[in-house]
């Protein structure tokens, strides 16, 4: 099939590449000319594991190409997938300007019947708005489909190739047939295509993200109780996760969720509820808990040093909002760094892939280390923010030798408490006893 993907971010580029990989002819459009030029030279513009080989293979095959020219891409394609940003507006609702402006442009240039597919995360009713916008500018027939994306950064290619479900919101039988064919190659592990109406599809995405965020915030609140009551949240996690009704995933206490999706989607769902005159009280609590979690972690560091905080040197392990990505959007590390800098703390950080993006954002306000051990040189504490695999089983002797003060604040519960005790570290983690 001939497909145009508009927006080549984490979702658009992975979608375009994976659709090309299964035999479609894909042309990706982006407004960012420098990014398009990079991709035309076969350079993946961000870090996403497993993407590069598929990306290069399909460029070489001639099944994946890039342009800034929307008209050309729209006219050559039957299916037009929107993978555009939907950032939060000032009032917390999703900003639909990227989606609706593009819908307008598509309406103006389309030359034939098109299927316009919304993969961006958008509030209920957006398919109707896109339909109205296109219809206002075109006499050609078209369908609008809501096809929210569930891939996770860091494992995006695998998620796209082996989805746990694909949601397609359409009431058109003709579109259903085309989508059954389009997604058939990804159903080899079982039928996972669910058709529903557009509104339900739009809301399913918010329901999924808000539910997952709720699981995280629940465990973070539980961690707070554990700290006061002398229990260990890791044991609670194992104890409840064995129950299939609860499930093992997303039960890790930490410093709160970040990233480009959960914070904005939870907020947008709360906004949707208030707009229709209701409340989504659980979601409101989830947001409050999430924010409080990073503040509590900061307080642990501040309280440990007390009046001596100013001038202390801290090593940060991890900057990205989660491992296996260079994405810094709403990363708790940025909040912690900004707050500690205000207190006069000196910071040196190490992250396997997110340092370039951090440098673009923070410049030389902090130092950047070549590796995780160099980062510790003469530091008064190590602060662990992202659970990259290479932080999980480090050389503790080397760490002890490099740190000028053997204190670790672990926002990801990476280490065993007994081991920390044996090694003589001060070790303050989440929802567990403080080792001192
Ligand atoms: P992103 O910010 O990484 O990428 C968006 C891309 O769109 C950028 O390359 C930007 O230059 C381009 N763009 C902006 N305006 C454009 C225009 N008018 N024409 C063409 N290109 C334009 O975004 P993302 O993370 O890929 O997210 C896209 C959507 O998918 C959002 O709605 C997001 O909520 C949703 N989503 C994201 C994820 C994720 O993990 N990142 C997962 C599921 C869903």
UniProtKB/TrEMBL annotation:
Residues 315-417 form the UDP-glucose/GDP-mannose dehydrogenase C-terminal domain. Pathway: Nucleotide-sugar biosynthesis; UDP-alpha-D-glucuronate biosynthesis; UDP-alpha-D-glucuronate from UDP-alpha-D-glucose: step 1/1. One of its GO terms (molecular function) is NAD binding. Pfam families: UDPG_MGDP_dh (PF00984), UDPG_MGDP_dh_C (PF03720), UDPG_MGDP_dh_N (PF03721). Keywords: NAD, Oxidoreductase. Substrate binds at residues 150-153, 205, 250-254, 258, 322. Its EC number is 1.1.1.22. Belongs to the UDP-glucose/GDP-mannose dehydrogenase family. PANTHER family: UDP-GLUCOSE 6-DEHYDROGENASE TUAD (PTHR43750). This is UDP-glucose 6-dehydrogenase.
């Amino acid at each position: 099939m001939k497909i145009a993907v508009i927006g080549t971010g984490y979702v658009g580029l992975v979608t375009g590449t994976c659709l090309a990989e299964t035999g479609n002819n894909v042309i990706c459009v982006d407004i960012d000319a420098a990014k398009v030029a990079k991709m035309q030279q076969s350079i993946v513009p961000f870090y996403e594991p497993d993407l590069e080989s598929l990306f290069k293979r399909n460029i070489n095959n001639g099944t994946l190409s890039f342009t800034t020219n929307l008209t050309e891409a729209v006219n050559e394609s039957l299916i037009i997938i929107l993978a555009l940003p939907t950032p939060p507006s000032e009032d917390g609702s999703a900003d639909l300007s990227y989606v609706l402006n593009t819908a307008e442009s598509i309406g103006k240039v389309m030359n034939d019947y098109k299927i316009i597919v919304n993969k961006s995360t958008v509030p209920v009713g957006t398919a109707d708005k896109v339909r109205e916008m296109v219809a206002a500018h075109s006499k050609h027939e078209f369908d609008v489909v809501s096809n929210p994306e569930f891939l996770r950064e860091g494992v995006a290619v695998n998620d796209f190739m082996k989805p746990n479900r694909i949601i397609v919101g359409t009431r058109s039988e003709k579109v259903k047939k085309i989508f059954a064919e389009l997604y058939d190659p990804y159903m080899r592990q079982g039928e996972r295509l669910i058709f529903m109406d557009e509104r339900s599809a739009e809301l399913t995405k918010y329901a999924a993200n808000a539910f997952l965020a709720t699981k995280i915030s629940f465990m973070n609140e539980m961690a707070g109780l554990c700290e006061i009551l002398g229990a260990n949240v890791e044991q609670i996690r194992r104890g409840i996760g064995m129950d299939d009704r609860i499930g093992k995933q997303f039960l890790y206490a930490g410093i709160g969720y970040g990233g480009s999706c959960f914070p904005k989607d939870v907020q947008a769902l709360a906004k949707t509820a208030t707009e229709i005159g209701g409340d989504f009280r659980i979601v409101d609590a989830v947001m409050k808990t999430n924010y409080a979690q990073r503040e509590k972690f900061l307080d642990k560091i501040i309280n440990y040093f007390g009046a001596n905080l100013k001038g202390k040197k801290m090593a940060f392990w991890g900057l990205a909002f989660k491992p296996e990505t260079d994405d810094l959007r709403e990363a708790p590390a940025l909040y912690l760094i900004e707050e500690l800098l205000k207190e006069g703390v000196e910071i040196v950080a190490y992250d396997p892939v997110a340092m370039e993006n951090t440098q673009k954002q923070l410049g030389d306000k902090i130092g950047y280390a070549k590796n995780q051990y160099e980062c510790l040189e003469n530091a008064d504490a190590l602060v662990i923010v992202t659970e990259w695999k290479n932080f999980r089983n480090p050389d503790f002797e080397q760490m002890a030798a490099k740190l000028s003060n053997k204190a670790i604040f672990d926002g990801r519960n990476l280490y065993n408490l007994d081991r920390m005790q044996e090694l003589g570290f001060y070790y303050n983690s989440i929802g567990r006893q403080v080792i001192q």
